[in-house]
Amino acid sequence: MRKFERGELLKRNVVYSGRIVEIVVDDIRINGKETLREVVRHPGGVGILAELEPDRIPLVRQHRYPVDRDVLEIPAGKIEPGEDPRQTAVRELEEETGYKPLSIETAFNYYPTPGYCDELLHIYYANKVEEAETCFDDDEDLEIEMYSLAEALSLIREGELKDGKTIAALYWLALKRTDSL
Amino acid sequence: MRKFERGELLKRNVVYSGRIVEIVVDDIRINGKETLREVVRHPGGVGILAELEPDRIPLVRQHRYPVDRDVLEIPAGKIEPGEDPRQTAVRELEEETGYKPLSIETAFNYYPTPGYCDELLHIYYANKVEEAETCFDDDEDLEIEMYSLAEALSLIREGELKDGKTIAALYWLALKRTDSL
Asked: What is the pLDDT of residues A75-85, one digit of tens each?
């Protein structure tokens, strides 16, 4: 297998530092030539596919400003500094649904857009949960809806469910159920 | 179903305009309060899962600078101005593998990261292809490798295949083969 070149970093320029992302433009030298690499930097995120009861999957509906529409997603969030991704997943499920996972399984993790962004997304699965004692934050502008796996898959087919992590997680669960993973 | 608020756009600030992405920060008014929304803008992309022969799937290996590793992906690229996403898919398959799809099927399309980016990714599937007459560009720093679906799924399980669109597309094909979509 061929060894690919990363190039040598000459200078890193932070061109924007925001609330979720930071944009850096690196001057690099690769194969004898000087060029640029632009990178959207993100702290990493998690998504958690849960079954609160058998085949009762909570999805969060919220307006997503960048795409200007309501998007249906598994509970998710970004990793806080120093937080283990599993903790993030437990916290997000609890905050968004009021349920606490008793155990969680790693489904898979992936780069959503490795061509321009360094985000790594961790997808977890939980099918044993209990009602949390803490109240969940209902100030967030979101709604929880419950779906069976078959219903959620049909929303993907109809183009009504368009979030990447949610599609991948639901396909994963469908394959797991048919022992095809 | 509740109607969510998008907010009123007061002013758009383009903070970075790069080769792949543009970053805008919008001043908005929502529920009586003024606040900001940061958006990574992207022209949209495609990925194409192809079977050059039955169960012979080409994956592209290339170094992805943002994540600093080699990433294995279905042929993919960004949509050029005025281009129909299907054209992009045909072009990318041809440029990267030297094969031209005789017909393509829409698998699904999705937002990889709707929390901060507007990219819409179109995933296509092609299982009828012919060798293209044009030579493909071998200047690009990438390699084509061939996998069966079972091999590719095992790379996901082992954490060796970590690209979001590729994972979702392979899961889609696995479900299609078991008639579980």
From this structure: 999 999 999 99
Say if the ipTM goes beyond 0.90.
yes
Q: Give residue limits of the domains in chain B.
A: 8-41, 45-177
Q: What is the pLDDT of residues A8-55, one digit of tens each?
A: 999 999 999 998 999 999 999 998 999 999 999 999 999 999 999 999
Residues 88-107 of A with CB under 8 A from B: none
Q: Could you tell me if A36 lies within 8 Å of chain B, comparing CB atoms?
A: yes
Q: Return d(Cα A56, Cα A64) in angstroms, integer.
A: 24
The residue with tokens 């120093």 is A82
CB contact under 8 Å between B18 and A25, yes or no, is: yes
Q: What are phi and psi of A85, to 5 degrees?
A: -55, -35
Please give the CATH topology (third level) of the domain spanning B45-177: Nucleoside Triphosphate Pyrophosphohydrolase (3.90.79)
Cα separation values, B56 from B49, B80, B145, Å: 10, 28, 10
Quote the CA–CA distance of B26 and B11 in Å, as a whole number: 6
Point out which residues pair with B121 in neighbouring strands: B45, B110
pTM, 2 dp = 0.95
Q: Is B176 left (phi over 0), alpha (psi -120 to 50) or beta?
A: alpha
Contact B38 A20 (CB under 8 A): yes
CA dist list (Å): A13 to A26, A36, A107, B40, B173: 6, 10, 36, 18, 41
